[in-house]
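DM from R.C. (forwarded with permission)

"hey, sorry to bug you on a friday — could you get me a structure for this? deadline for the figure draft is monday and I only need the backbone to look sensible"
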Amino acid sequence: SQSRYRKGIHPMFRRFLTFARSTAKKIEATKKSWVWRHRKSKDSNPESFVANILIVKNPIYAKVGRVCVESFLYYHPNAIVKLHVDDMTRQAVKTEILDRNISQKISIVAVHGQSSTWQEQKIELILSLSGTSEFFMDADLRWNSRIRTISEVTFYVNEFFWREKSPFRQIVESFRGGKYKSAMMRNTSFFTFGGHQLETQALFDVKQIECELLRLIKSDLLGSIDRDQVSRLSEQLALSIASEDWNTTINTLKLS
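My reply, with the result:
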């Protein structure tokens, strides 16, 4: 069988194959990076978008963020990219992104509040964009096409209805008396208000909802494994629930 054949491969040859595949991937990534930095897509969008990327807590995300920045600017050459960094990631971002992309289109913004979780920092950044058409983008996105013009609240994609999937079903049924049973789980890898301005109370509600959800998640409602995994999604959970009360059209960047 194929598995027996693989077991019969000499260890040195197996290491060589692993090395060869890894090298090929690095070469391909280098070639792609060069194209992104020195060429412009024939299908590019000339609009002057402003994109915000959060790179905090772990320097490894600087290398991931480079792919996001370079592929985004390839399709949106007139865009401006703001990289929000902390003390732990500043130097890595400079080395991986700024030093490789000599451009006035990319700037660094300092993130304060080292005791905050990255989820809390992400919510703070997203809420600060209320009333603007600026984008938030996760650092691990890779762009394969241009973004259309957006004029409404837009999430990355709708994932599923909370009531259709455990353990989110248990959470939504217990949260505020089941008021949000019809809520949709919305992915926040990309987000923009599209110019929509939230009222001060609505902005506060997002943070309040995150706190209430975390208390519920950390209670005995969920098992320990679910509790740890779901709590890492706290900013996505909060924005998904809170957006149910926003009196505006909500769209997604991707259909599925």
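R.C.: lifesaver. The CA atoms of residues 219 and 227 lie 8 Å apart.
me: no worries. Confidence is low (pLDDT under 50) at residues 1-5.
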